[in-house]
Amino acid sequence: MNPHRRQRRPRRWPALLAIAATVFTVLPATAAASSSPSPTHSATASSGNATAGSAGPAAACGTTNAALNRPATASSTENAGTPAAAAVDGNPGTRWSSAFSDPQWLRVDLGAARDICRVELDWEAAYGRAFQLQTSADGGTWTTVHQTTTGTGGDQTIDVTGTGRYLRVHGTARATGYGYSLWELRVFTADSTGPGVPDTDPYNPDLGPNTYVFDPSTPTSTIQSRLDQIAARMKTNQFGTERYAVLFKPGSYDADVNLRFYTQVAGLGMLPDDVEINGHIRVEADWLQQGDNPDNLGNATQNFWRAAENLSVTLPAGQIERWAVSQAAPYRRMHLRGQVQLWNGADGWASGGLIADSRIDGVVVSGSQQQFFTRNSELRGGWSGSVWNMVFTGSTGTPPPNFPNPSHTVVDTTPTIREKPFLYVAPDGEYRVFVPALRTNARGTSWGSGAPAGESISLADFFVVQLGTPASEINAALAEGKHLLITPGVHHLDDTIRVTNPNTVVLGLGITTLVPDTGLPAMTVSDVDGVKLAGFLIDAGPVNSPVLMEIGEPGSSADHSANPTSLHDVFFRVGGAHVGRASVSLRINSDDVIGDHMWLWRGDHGDGIGWNLNTAANGLVVNGDDVTMYGLFVEHYQEYNTIWNGNGGRTYFYQNEMPYDPPDNASWSSGGGNLGWAAYKVADSVTTHEAWGVGVYCFFNANPSVVASRGFEVPDRSGVRFHGLVTVSLGGVGTINRVINDTGETVNQPHQVSYVRNYP
């Protein structure tokens, strides 16, 4: 544990009464479809205000606490250790307490309108003498369903009749000189609240119209025709709305997969070798013009948003695999029998990528890759090449550490990692999701010795999100304890997706995309254990969102080190497909969070691009302690691209390009005599932080005279350490005066690359 972890404040008084444990139930799944499986397409078979009364017989009051881990807010808090969320976390040792004044309130969002029949209040010694229980449909207009001026404190059970999405405890008179203080607020609803969340048939799920599932009986010509159709359609479709997932059941296939935009190809086996592709899974740089000559193709710097996962590939004799990618293009849990070329320097450029949890039998040739991250992989044929920033953690067969010439930053083991959850088909035909276990001090793949440790979850326990599914249904499913599987497409949201239960899995297929249309966050996650978020893109909407995703509430301080929340292949975009605006893309308040390959991008090309159009101050803000990032790409934000306020943070590989479009230094400077904004800011209050293999680049093409004082800005403390740093002026367009603080050479037109081996 980090010695600087925030400690929870102890109770002011001991609990007054014993608290009965609440029971959380999940609806049983039943088969919903009757058509027989098709090998080619999952869509066809494999292809108001509260009221204080009601008519009719009374419905039975349920036994599930509808408030458990739901979003909670309050009029005030006594201090950061007593947040509103502590009253709905199911933990009798944590509490919400208010300021020492009247009135005060605590509100819980149940996610959808519910028929509320009972409320339980577990008061600490500082209780409410006079208070009201109120319900609301919108959080603005309230109806009182219970009130008292003679509250007794302790453990109160109150029967009520009312309907609302929100339940509020509104205190008007305190019994003590302290504030209001609740160990727990529990809300129970009627059993007959509607049809409930539809069940998923795990043997015949509807995975959406753009998910294609093949098995070995499918004719090779059918498979190849579909692959070619998708590749042709998505070759240049950089900002289109189509998304595709191509899934192979266990077996052997002859196929040439030319992987294009917004396409995921994945195996449905428990192990990569369960699905063998005899042919290629490749990415080509044959569409984007470089320079002024229309015949001069080969630029791979915009080969984004595609994925190859959980497959083995046997190349034709004498051939190599080309994997010409840049950001948001994971090569994950793969076994390649042959050589891979990350791009040929003679043909153009490539600008980043990830190999994770993979085995490559031949040599990896990095070619013109400017920076690349390889984690927990077996490079049996070794690695050849380097440009600016090649980083390896927990891998075998890597080149020796030798920075900066060649620029190989090598970390022997990965301190703590959970691999990405994945969809697979069990031997009896049931679709399941496997969640790999947390590993510490890991080296090599998770599957090299056979089936990895972890948890297998039936798709019956998932709610499958289709295009057009409203956020209210998604949140109702989450409230019932369901996991989410999000089908390929662009999903427009009129409300925030709220993940409140521990150990929830949210898994996207086909680079599926969430767009918050109303200025709300696309997704929030409560400060709970073990949430896994994987495989989706959040694309900012036209109304500014203060934050696109938030992990944990402000002031979160629970210890999640034994079961952290993790993000895998989660990407963010502001502008490019349309005008998008978001002040912060990702804010992490919880402790111990793991980031496993993320690209946070304020667009520099496409639609809706401009200094005053796709506005976005910060990409990543980390407030939690002991947060670890592997393969972190954050680019083009208008102020600090990354702000790290928590202690104990670690970053393994960082790639940044400063914004291309600052009009001048007068309008782009952080103050205090600094020019521009550093790309990576560690707060002055931080005492422990460490990073390996980090790079910052500038290309100020809107005004090449713009200057940034430094790439990295950190407190000068022995506990804050950086290894393997580089700054680059791309083509000499713009200037960065120093690499980190006041250390490192200036990069500009005559001197375009600067390295710092270690700091301090």
Automatic annotation (TrEMBL):
Ranges in coiled-coil conformation: none
Low complexity bias locations: 32-64
InterPro entries (alphabetical): FA58C (IPR000421), Galactose-bd-like_sf (IPR008979), Pectin_lyase_fold/virulence (IPR011050), SACTE_4363 (IPR059186)
Domain F5/8 type C span(s) in chain numbering: 55-190
Keywords tagged on the record: Signal
Region feature Disordered, mapped onto this chain: 32-96
One Pfam family per UniProt: F5_F8_type_C
Domain of life of the organism encoding this protein: Bacteria
Signal peptide positions (record): 1-31
Protein name: Discoidin domain-containing protein
Lineage: Bacteria, Bacillati, Actinomycetota, Actinomycetes, Pseudonocardiales
